[in-house]
Write a structure and sequence with these properties.
The protein is an alpha/beta fold. It has helices at residues 64-78, 86-95, 103-124, 128-131, 151-163, 184-202, 218-226, 245-252, 268-276, 287-290, 292-305, 318-330, 380-383, and strands at residues 26-36, 39-48, 53-57, 139-146, 168-171, 207-211, 235-237, 259-261, 282-283, 309-310, 337-338, 341-342, 345-346, 361-362, 365-367.
Length: 406
């Protein structure tokens, strides 16, 4: 061993030329907005110097043109960069403006990040889940939804789903889409009676949840929970808006029903207080909103630390579905993935004429694909013929004329 006073000469380590490969440089990043099924979809096509193509998807439904403009901003400085430096690209996109974050920007970052993972998987000849630490499960359990218009239809749909193999069913209120006026005082008792009848009909072997679409105040949500006998609901999704974690803390102290919150989160910072303070029992992150794989994996790890399972939001098309399937395959803490393909609901998002290769739903589970990248291919000629339409969510009002949430 040399004496402490001796100077040890260090040999220079040669830099691998593999990390300077021009073939991996990004040549174009293009937003593709199209009407698919009952919604518009905003995809991102990313092409590298050697001709590899990756696809991503944005999750900000109804405001796709704003996200498309953000994608164009990012493309201006990302084109020419090494597509393999995914983490660095994420940081540059997030930090390259004074006003960091926000749902429009992170929806654009999400789509780009997913496309970068798709390209890297194809470059290495491996499915994306291998880039995330490898597969931890072979199939991805899902929950299905019913938008039955009355109690009889809710029960019929639920029994049909159970017969098809689903063990987790989420309902929307039977009065969800009744006109432009929403009155919690008249609608909540009806919903509570529906849920009590459903629980009595299906027993306790099936997980039952409801999405209230953050339409309520703390007092209204607490009142609704008090209408339900203990054990009626297994999860309550988005009862109030998520901007104020302290409001969720108040509501959390007023009911023992587990919460499912997170589809609106656009960063790990938004997710943090909900995990640290026990304000959600299921993490409903949306990979196409929160920042793609790069940010979703951080939130997944944080959720594991608090024994919170992922229950990802997935209201979109095959690219979002495939990305979420890879995320679910690579994370240990996982419950169910939302699917909008079922015997009682098919919104047309997974058109095989537009997406000739996509992740397959077999009964109540998605099969994890083994093909390189995401396992999704897009027929570009077909999708460019699907002109987007102007979409505006219902602008609901209370009986007194004031504006409320959709």
């Amino acid at each position: 061993m040399p004496e402490m006073s001796e100077t040890v000469a260090l040999e220079a380590v040669p830099v691998s030329k593999g990390w300077e490969d021009k073939a991996a440089r990004i040549t174009t990043i293009t937003p593709v907005l199209a009407r698919v099924g009952k919604r518009n979809q905003l995809l991102v096509k990313l092409v590298t110097e050697d001709g590899l193509t990756g696809w991503g998807e944005s999750g900000l439904s109804g405001r796709e043109r704003a996200v498309s403009a953000a994608v164009d901003h990012f493309a201006a400085f990302l084109e020419g960069q090494d597509s393999r430096k995914i983490g660095r690209i994420w940081q540059e996109c997030y930090r390259s403006q004074y006003f960091e974050g926000g749902r429009v920007l992170t929806a654009a970052i999400s789509a780009i990040d997913i496309a970068l993972h798709d390209v890297l998987g194809k470059r290495l000849g491996v499915p994306v889940y291998q880039l995330l630490g490898g597969r931890q499960r072979d199939v991805i359990p899902t929950f299905a939804s019913t938008m039955g218009q009355d109690r009889q239809e809710l029960l019929e749909h639920t029994h049909k789903l159970i017969h098809a193999g689903w063990d987790c069913v989420r309902i929307y209120p039977s009065n969800f889409d009744r006109g432009e006026v929403y009155s919690p005082r008249t609608s909540l008792p009806e919903i509570a009676d529906d849920l009590k009848a459903m629980r009595e009909a299906i027993g306790h072997t099936v997980t039952l949840g409801i999405d209230l679409h953050h339409r309520l105040s703390v007092a209204e949500a607490a009142s609704f929970c008090n209408m339900l006998p203990s054990g009626t609901l297994d999860f309550l999704e988005e009862p109030i808006r998520s901007e104020a974690p302290d409001a969720y803390a108040v509501l959390r102290g007023m009911t023992d029903i587990p919460f499912a919150v997170g589809e609106e989160f656009s960063s790990k910072w938004q997710a943090a207080p909900f995990l640290e303070k026990g304000l959600t029992q299921f993490m409903r992150l949306d990979i196409c909103n929160i920042g793609g794989f790069t940010e979703a994996m951080k939130v997944a790890g944080w959720s594991e630390r608090f024994y919170v399972d992922l229950m990802p939001h997935n209201p979109l098309g095959p690219v979002c579905t495939a990305a979420t399937v890879h995320l679910a395959a690579a994370t240990p803490n996982f419950s169910w993935l939302e699917t909008r393909q079922s015997p009682v609901e098919n919104l047309g998002f997974h058109d095989t004429g537009i997406f000739p290769e996509q992740v397959q739903l077999e009964g109540p589970v998605y099969v994890v694909p083994d093909s390189p990248g995401l396992g999704v291919e897009v027929d570009e000629d077909a999708i460019t013929k699907q002109d987007p339409t102007h979409v505006e969510a219902p602008h609901l009002r209370r009986p007194d004329g004031s504006v409320t949430n959709w």
